[in-house]
Design goal:
The protein is of the alpha/beta class. Helix content is 31%, strand content 21%. The longest helix is centred in the C-terminal third of the chain and has 18 residues. It is elongated. It starts with a strand and ends with a helix.
Length: 821
């Protein structure tokens, strides 16, 4: 029998809990929801857009009536719960309805704070919290009268903007000397005020309302500066108070709000609370992102899924006013222990401020240019050391060398400008999907539009569009690696590192996967992490969990044929090798042969049945697989170096061959490329490879984390060394640290931007740590340097490539039996 779950509150936080709950179970609870307002669940954060006329109420509805019906939820809208009987586990509504519960969720939100002032009880003195308030404002505003808005915070500014858009004279009163003083410093506030004044809003700062005058409704308003305006409307946006009255009457523990633990449980084991009404670790929240983070934890708790408790939220803010680009997060003021990095251009209206403590970002203010908001917020949340970024960080991610995450100003992009080249998705497609389908996270956008779901190079730009469109509604919580789990790569790696597992299924069970067998996204990732932990000699590499190219040891092409690439060490070959390849290509009638960018020969158009015999012929001629399909070492590209080139300073060809023979067969989170240039002219393009080696007079420069893909990232200099032995040690150490520390399908360029250059230097430049990682690499290579073509043939794995032929005698088809008429 299902448990009875009653939800008090039909708003955004309570309903998000139910939506998240359905991701884990839809048959555990019989759900009843009470809502005080006479509407289905709507997005109250979009009220400012309704007020300004940019959206209709229908545009803001999150869950239509059909959603409640499809999920068999009993909705009692317009019926406020007036009492909770903890002892008998019942709630009673204003209409007299009594409903029993096994578990109760209180999501009553907050009440507006309207300060007691002479005349504050007159008609048309209202708050700005719900649809009824918007309706009142819309029916009251008059171009002959002045509307007064009290409060220079987010809601106050949005209310003033919405009213001003109707051509109504609007005065905004704020007791501080700077608007948005809870989210911006004075410089940012001044720039924002100048922008908003262009919409016709008049600001009275360091000012309060003295009196509200009128017989029944507002007629005049007097201010502390002695001025008086004729007004028929005054809107207070001066803060909120957690709505805890019901909890108090029920005997639940409260302070500022309803007290909850890390799992959102109140002082009663059967009663939970979420949203603006709760107090957690002394904090209450009025922005939607923290409420969604609470909801995700509570949903898992109610579903019986193992979950880490809620530990609080990092607040970020986005103003929902068209044409105003503003973002802030964290401790944007700082103190005597912090430092500030500031970029200010008042003429064009751009202001950036990063508050730094111990070389880590703890606060952000962006005005006029918020393109990199998601990147800065990520650096803040992940406590990234920015020591090596300081001189360029204010100029945005593109100034650091773009590896596919940003560098574009989403505000300057037109709606028809392409964002995702893989899937042909434009900015307008993404923005419309976010608005029309109420998408809140990167995973939502990927699933709905496919933007960012293929090569991943546009993920950063997609995330910028999300932040730009949603502001504080954006759910920046790390997404699960696929729909089978909510756990991200970091969580899964931690589970594997702290346990013992024989198969991917053991991990699925331990991590409480939603599906028994996983899927094509999570199986290869988990298989890789197990391989990275145990090495191939201690863990049976699950080929069925590998991607198709890795299973077939060749790259599948769009016509269903394959390309075969034998390894050419360092790009050096011989006439005999070229003749052998030519003879094999003629034998199998290979239609196309191409020189690759990695200095090899690629044979295209090979059928699946031809793979095994072709591999055998190549093996017999001394070739091994070039592993052009692999999540591992692809190529080591070289220039001719000092052997022939008059500018060469070192033997790049010799070094390249040695490095390739050292590292071939290795597996890594993503494809991995090395290049060796014999001099700083860099003809082998070593500065856009995962690991680059450049010859100089005194030895070798070692470069890391380059990317020559869709978005180019130039390498960072790791260090300089003098001897070949040092090059080998650093090569092994960096590669091993990357393969064990990075996430599956994370290129070195993306990895370094996530963890920071200093983090990598701390490991690789430390002699003891470097030798540790190098020894780990040597150990892993003992079982890795086996030609996959040869092994596949020996293991009989290639039998699956054979055509399935059924003789007529064994066939059960009517035609094959030759039945007589």
């Amino acid at each position: 029998m299902k448990e009875k779950l009653v939800v008090i509150g039909n708003g955004m936080s309570g309903l998000r809990v139910i939506e998240d709950l359905y991701e884990y179970t839809n048959d555990k609870y019989e759900i009843t929801i009470f809502g005080e307002e006479p509407y289905v669940n709507y997005n109250r954060i979009m009220l400012s857009y309704i007020l300004s006329g940019e959206k209709t109420f229908e545009d803001t509805i999150i869950n239509h009536r059909s959603w409640y019906e499809q999920n068999h939820i009993a909705l009692h809208k317009g019926d406020k719960v007036v009492s909770i009987d903890k002892k008998n586990k019942k709630v009673k509504s204003e209409s007299g309805l009594e409903i029993s519960y096994d578990k109760l969720l209180i999501a009553t939100g907050s009440k507006p704070f309207i300060p007691t002032t002479q005349g504050s009880d007159l008609g048309n003195v209202i708050a700005f919290r719900n649809k009824a308030d918007v309706d009142t404002i819309m029916s009251t505003i008059n171009k002959e009268k002045t509307a007064v808005v009290v409060g220079g915070g987010l809601l106050g500014l949005e209310a003033a903007y919405g009213i001003a858009m109707h051509g109504v004279k609007t005065v905004l009163v704020h007791r501080s000397g700077s608007i948005l003083s809870q989210q911006l410093d004075s410089t940012g506030g001044r720039l924002l005020q100048k922008n908003l004044e262009s919409y016709g809003i008049e600001f009275k700062l360091n000012t309060t309302v003295e009196q509200i005058l009128g017989s029944e409704k507002v007629e005049k308003v007097t201010f502390s500066d002695g001025t008086i305006v004729d007004s028929n409307l005054i809107v207070f946006a001066t803060g909120i108070i957690p709505n805890k009255d019901l909890a108090i009457s029920a005997g639940l523990e409260t302070k500022k709000g309803i007290l909850v633990d890390d799992f959102l449980k109140t002082s009663d084991d059967s009663i939970f609370a979420v949203g603006e009404c709760v107090e957690h670790n002394g904090n209450t929240y009025g922005l939607v992102a923290p409420l969604y983070e609470q909801g995700k934890v509570l949903a898992k708790k109610l579903a019986g899924v193992e979950v880490d408790g809620y530990s609080g939220s990092t607040l970020s803010t986005r103003l929902k006013i068209s044409g105003v680009d503003l973002f802030s997060a964290g401790d944007y003021l700082g103190d005597e222990t912090t430092e500030e990095l500031i970029l200010l251009d008042e003429k064009v209206g751009v202001y950036k401020k990063l508050v730094i403590y111990d070389n880590k970002i703890i606060g952000i203010v962006l005005y006029g240019d918020t393109a990199d908001a998601s990147w800065y917020l990520k650096l803040l949340k992940e406590h990234t050391d920015i020591s090596d970024l300081r001189t360029k960080i204010l100029f945005g991610k593109s100034a650091l060398g773009d590896s596919g995450h940003g560098g574009d100003d989403v505000n300057a992009m037109s709606d028809d400008e392409e964002v995702c080249g893989c899937n042909g998705i434009c900015k307008g497609d993404i923005v419309n999907a976010i608005k029309d389908k109420d998408l809140k996270s990167l995973g939502d956008v990927k699933s709905c539009t496919k933007a960012g779901a293929s090569c991943g190079s546009c993920v950063g730009l997609v995330e910028q569009i999300l932040v730009n469109t949603l502001g504080d509604e954006y759910n920046s919580a790390p997404e699960g690696i696929c729909s089978c789990t909510d756990k991200g790569h970091g969580e899964i790696k931690k589970i594997i590192d702290n346990g013992e597992f024989d198969t991917v299924y053991d991990v699925f069970k331990k991590a409480q996967w939603k599906t028994e067998d996983g899927c094509a996204k999570c199986r290869p990732a988990v298989n890789y992490y197990l391989l990275a932990k145990y090495n191939d000699d201690k863990y049976m590499n699950d080929k069925r969990s590998a991607l198709v190219n890795d299973r077939n040891f060749a790259n599948i092409q769009k016509d269903g044929t394959y390309s075969v690439v034998p390894r050419i060490w360092g790009g050096l070959t011989t006439p005999k090798e070229l003749k052998d390849i030519a003879d094999i290509a003629v034998k199998y009638e290979v239609p196309t042969i191409k020189f690759t960018g990695g200095q090899r020969l690629d044979m295209f158009g090979v059928t699946k049945e031809q793979l095994a015999p072709m591999w055998k012929d190549l093996n017999d001629c001394g070739f091994v697989s070039g592993q052009a399909y692999a999540k591992g070492l692809r190529t080591v590209k070289t220039c001719v170096g000092n052997t022939y080139c008059r500018f060469g300073t070192q033997d790049s060809m010799g070094m390249g061959v040695k490095l390739e023979k050292l590292t071939w067969g290795s597996w890594t989170p993503h494809k991995y490329k090395i290049a060796v240039s014999g001099c700083p002219r860099n003809c082998a393009e070593a500065t856009i490879k995962d690991f680059g080696v450049i010859g100089v007079d005194s030895g070798w420069e070692l470069h890391i984390a380059g990317n020559g893909g869709i978005k180019v990232r130039v390498t960072d200099l790791l260090c300089k060394v003098e001897t070949e032995e040092e090059v080998f040690e650093y090569t092994k150490a960096f590669m091993q640290f990357y393969r064990e520390d990075a996430y599956y399908l994370e290129r070195t360029a993306h990895w370094i931007e996530r963890v920071g250059l200093q983090y990598i230097k701390d490991e690789i430049l430390d002699e003891e740590k470097r030798k540790y990682w190098a020894s780990r690499f040597d150990e892993s290579q003992k079982s890795a340097q086996v030609d996959p073509w040869k092994k596949a043939i020996e293991d009989g794995f290639t039998k699956e490539f054979d055509k399935i032929v059924i003789s007529p005698e064994d066939s059960h088809s009517f035609e094959a039996k030759g039945v007589e008429a």
